[in-house]
Each structure stands twice: as structure tokens, then as C-alpha cells.
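Quick one: C-alpha cells for this chain, please?
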Amino acid sequence: MPPRRRLILFLALVALAAAIYVVTRSRRDLVDFEVYRTAAQRAVAGEPLYRPEDGHWQFKYLPVFALIVAPAGRGNPEVVKLIWFAIGCGLLAVVFARSVDLLPERRRTEAGLIALTAFVTAKLWIKELVEGQTNLWLAALVLGAVGVANHQRRALAGVLVGVAVFVKPYALIFVPWLLIACGAGSVVACALTVAAGLAAPALVYGWQGDLTQHLAWWHGVTATTAPNLLFPENMSIASMWAKWIGAGATASALAVLTGLVLFGLVMTMFRRRATVSAPSLVEVSALLLLVPLLSPQGWDYVALLGIPATMAVLDRWRTVSSFWRAVATAAIVVTGFTIYDLLGRATYLRAMSLSVLTLAAIALVVCVVHLRWRRLA
């Protein structure tokens, strides 16, 4: 992209980010950021992180993440919020840039592909920024791992995936990719990184306190899973079955079975990866899209992790049959435009009760897998 066009794009993005920030402060006000800030303050003071009295806003991340975001607990809250929002915007730009750079044999122009993907996923990344969430941190770290792996820096790829586990524990889903794409050494690097992260809180809490915090984390996550399954915005497979047949053992079993089948489907992409040039981006994009589906607390905006998958499908649009174009269109439109203000209360709640977002995300995963199957054929 020419330098002048890059400058214009940069200024346009800054203006858009400023507008979103102004609206954010008048409406949602970075509500999830307050969870991180509170946890950061508690970690610095050596206080318990996980407290039932926090209700819906309980801290549900590993203790080490509270230490990582410790700077967010200091300083003027207004200044820290602005910095946090700016970091989110920067990481969003990184995710789009890395997704298009890592996409092999790209068919569309860089600017056109980014613009189209940004438009159809706008609901997701805007909500992420408005909430003050950290899913973009996960996406940027994992895409960074793909980038360094492509340059044979395999141990560093393992370290980056390990750090991603600190941000969101379900980043462990990328370990099979590490093993197949980068070898056992990268998995060892990932394991050592995770081990260091599990031990780090002992610097503040001591060894017994470290164990206590991790047990409290596990209890907090498991205790809040069931109550959150029936929230309209929960798009996990577990939520889908709970909404369809009611929460219980049967729904849980079906969710596990569905998740295993879907994960197994994605794993089939690795069978003949050697026949495809630069295969990692498409494989990782499918795994990223699995995250909100397999996590029992996968909220709708976590589907922004599907940005690389959406970009890959849009780029290969002309190479697939009309059937697969129809499937992809339905999946992208449902995921990106199931919006309360657009559909109205009744239609929106009905759509969410039917788990249309979950079905759309599953369809998009299948579309990504089809890209590999079609290439192999």
C-alpha cells in the first residue's frame, strides 16, 4: 500500500477510534476494564482476587494475568482507560494487518480485503473495544506465533502461545498446531512459559497463597458457568444445547460430543498440510473460531477471533462453488448483523434463543475446513 494511502487510512482509523471512545464513555464505559483494574489493584496489594460478592463481574482469568495488567491499577482512572482503549485499537490494527499479511496466495487487494472484513465484523470488534475486553490480545499473540513460526522461530512461537494462555486459558487449543507445525520443542517452550506463569503469583502470595488463588480461580470459573449458559449473548455450544433442551446432564453430554466432532473436523486439516503453501494461517484461523464455541462462557463478541477465518473465506470467494458461497454468506451475515438495534427486541431475543450465532460460527468453521479439503482435492 502506498505511503500516502497508509497515512490516510491511519488518520481515518484514528478518527473512528475517537468517535467510538466518545460513544463508549457515554454508554458502556469499558465495564470489563473495571474488572481488570480491580484485580490489578488486589494483586499488587496481595489480596484475594476471586470473590463471590463481585457477582457477574468476578475476575475469571489466571492469577498471573492480574500481575500482567498491574499497571492498569495505578494512576488516574481516566488516563488509564484512554490508554487501555488505545491499546485495544492498536491490537485491532495488528490483527487485521497480520491476518492479511499471513494469508498465502492472496486473491484480493490488501486494502479491499481489510475494508470488507472490517465492515462485516464491525459489530464484534466495536463491542470488544466498548467492553474493554482482551480477546484482541489473544488473537494478536496467536497470529504473532504464526508469523514467527513461518520464519522458523519455533521456540518463540511456543512462548507466544504460552503467554496467550495467561490472557485466555483456552489458548491451550493451539497446542496441537504447535506440535504439528513447529515440533515438540515449541510445545516444551509453551509448557515452560505456562509453568512460569503459574508460579509467578508466588512472588506476591507465596507458594501456598499461589495454590489458593489458582483453586479459587477454578472454583469461580466452574461455579459461574451454569448460570451463564442461558444468557442471550452466550454463543457457546454448551449454551446452544442448554437453550434448546434445557440445562442438564444431557445438554452437557451433547455439548461435549458436538465440540469433539467439531474439533476433530478441524484436525483433519492437518492430514496433508505439506501439500499446501504456508498452511498455518488457515489452520489457526479455524482454531481461533473454535474458542467462543468450546468455551462455556463464549460471549458473542468473542467471535471477533474469527476475523482471520472470515478474511480467508472472503479472499477465496471466487474459487468456491455457489453452494459454499451461500453458506459463507449466511454465516457471515448472521454473525456480523444479528444486532439488537437492527432487529428489534423480539426478533433479537428469538434469534439468540435459537443460538443462530452458534450455528453461524459452526458453518464458518466448516467453510474454512472446506478451503483445505478443496485445495487437497
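The two ends are 34 Å apart (CA to CA).
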